[in-house]
Amino acid sequence: MNYKALAERLLPGEYPPLESYEEKYPPRNLPKGAEVTRLAPSPTGFIHLGNLFAAIANERIAHQSGGILYLRIEDTDLKRKVDGAVEAVKNALRYFDIKFDEGAEIGGDDTYAPWYQRQRAEIYRAFVKHLVEEGRAYPCFCTEEELSALREEQTAKKEVTGYYGKYAKCRNLSEEEIYRNLDEGKPFVIRLKSLGNPENKRKFRDEIKGDITVPENDQDVVILKSDGIPTYHFAHAIDDHFMRTTLVIRGEEWLASLPIHIELFEALGFERPRYGHNCSLMKQDGESRRKLSKRKDPELSLEFYRKEGYFARAVKVYMLTLLNSNFEEWYRKNPEAPLESFKFSAGKMSKSGTLFDLDKLNDISKDELSKLSAEEMFDFLKTWADEYGTETQKGYFVDREKMLNTLTLCMGIGGKKRRKDFTTASQAMEFIKFFFERTPQEDEYRCDQETRVAVLTSFLKKYDPADDGQTWFAKVKETAAENGFAAEMKEYKTNPENYKGSVADVAEILRIATTGRANTPDLCTIQQILGEKETRARIKAQL
CA angle 258-346-68, nearest 5°? Predict the structure, then answer.
């Protein structure tokens, strides 16, 4: 068969010499040992925890080695493309402080651009044409119906599904048959002519899993679709070579495609980047574990963490505890150290499924938020409220001094021990809500109405916003004594039958009247923040 003539018929026109691409996209001028890694999502609009998992690993490996992390958009499948998806990817990763050096909509060195695969179509077609000329690729005219019937037959026979061996109908078409199909205008794809035998096994060094064994590929995979755009398999091999990627960290679901990728790099004559396949994120579901699911688990989406208002550093800290087995101990010893100073290692990534525990993330989030100053917390909450809060919540930040005083109290700043009441921005905004709004009463009084009215009336007569904490509490004790409660806890514990309750019960009545809650930070300070007018108004409303 005249393969050169066939290649010209399938992909007519002049293409630049293949060597010219090597000159156009030269090896990067980087220090020895510097890694070039990438994140290469599809523009589907859904960016998930697995993307962040891989992004953190790739970012750490690249930057701690003095290398490059770039963003490539794999948009070969137009059916899955969603408008605004690239911006969503960028925003989500920016929120979690993933710093790209170059790539789609990033800027930086454009030597290796364009960063969208559809804009690189000429490069792919030039190499497809070369493979046809070499007899390593051929046109396939099978229809979708024929391919579906083929899969059904293979499934019924309990054979491996795919286009290979005796099932590769178009692999051995004669020259006459090929040209007749072309003359009739039949649509076609171009497939790689595989030379592998799955009976043959080969060792492969995975940067995460270590030495593994994979079969040779025998699938004649599609490398160029009927619209002239390559498949992911082919495009990624071309791009990783010409973008000079040295290491690919990706999900273990790609292990099944590894034989295909190995053969593609060999067929193209390219040096293959190193691969590391990270484990799947699992969730405890009853007695068993399962992979996190887009349909079942809202926490899989990165948008979930932004809407809830998780502190980005907290999520990153938790991800690092899952990514590297020695991170947690290091962080315990170095709680104030920049995360960038941790020596990340692909070899210390988990080799099997990793359990994602939202409760543990919440605990880490409380720890991380408790380290912030009132000003830092103000900025964090305001940024969240500006994007996700209600108009009422945005109004909380108008009086900066009041908000700072509220946060100082609620975070225990200046006290003996920092409080850890805040988990996320949305939860924190709900927690401090009563400082800015008269909220529905959450907790019930544990006394009758007559007692409540008597206690509140008595306190209002004594209340003075100028009182310090000691004087304020002395007046609460007076209120207790006047209404049949023990002013001293010691007295109540000695003879509880002599009293309606203790001073703590009186404080609870005042607390619920002021805030609607039985448990809050220091009530005297809360009333000082609310001010005399609002404090009196709230208590009177309970009479």
Answer: 85
Q: Do residues 423 and 369 touch, judged by C-beta distance below 8 A?
A: yes
Side-chain half-sphere exposure of 508, counting CA atoms within 13 A? 15
Q: Residue 166, CB half-sphere, CA atoms under 13 Å: how many?
A: 4
Mean pLDDT of 168-173: 96
Examine the pLDDT at 352 and tell me if it is beyond 90.
Answer: no
Per DSSP, the residues of 325-371 read TTHHHHHHH-TTS-GGGS---GGGS-SS-EE--HHHHHHHHHHHHHT
Residue ranges and CATH numbers for the domains of the chain are: 3-15+121-278 (3.40.50.620), 289-345+352-369 (1.10.1160), 372-435 (no CATH), 449-540 (1.10.10.350)
Look at residue 407 and give its three-state secondary structure: helix
Among candidate residues 301, 421, 300, the one with its CA nearest the CA of residue 363: 421
Cα separation, 130 vs 15, in Å, equals 10
Which pair of tokens denotes residue 189?
A: 């794809």
- 266: exposed, middle or buried (Cβ count in 10 Å: 0-12, 13-18, 19+): middle
The three-state secondary structure class of 384 is helix
Question: How confident is the model at residue 78, as a pLDDT?
Answer: 76
